[in-house]
Target: Zgc:110843
Amino acid sequence: LAMSASTFLPLSKPDIRNGFTFCKEHLTTILPLLATAAGTYLICRYVGKRSCKKSRVNREVNKDSPKVVHSIDMEDIGSKAVYCRCWRSRKFPYCDGAHTKHNEETGDNVGPLIIKKRDA
Ligand code: FES
Model:
């Protein structure tokens, strides 16, 4: 991009404020740059928000709660319990097999936590 001193010489009467000379050529240079910067900012902001929401583990379980916690007594487990670790189960905190679809869609490899009594 070659620019000579005549590139920024005013064609019309210059508007001088605080020692700065402003002319049409400045506008034709600055306006596309400002439009590009504003467009880039808006695109980055939109993409940033979308990727932030996608990175959340919990998408729908007790969203009104500041923290999702479940407490289960050992005596209530019985001989075996299967707990969800992918956060996609409709029976959360129990696994309903939704991790299979999640893994297929995302390439992830999550599965349940299985707690069982040792075989005698
Ligand atoms: S449904 Fe989440 S681990 Fe099975």
User: Anything to note?
Assistant: The mean pLDDT is 84. The chain has two domains: 13-54, 58-120. The pocket of FE2/S2 (inorganic) cluster is lined by residues 84-86, 88-89, 95-99, 110-112 (CB under 6 Å). The CA atoms of residues 17 and 23 lie 12 Å apart.
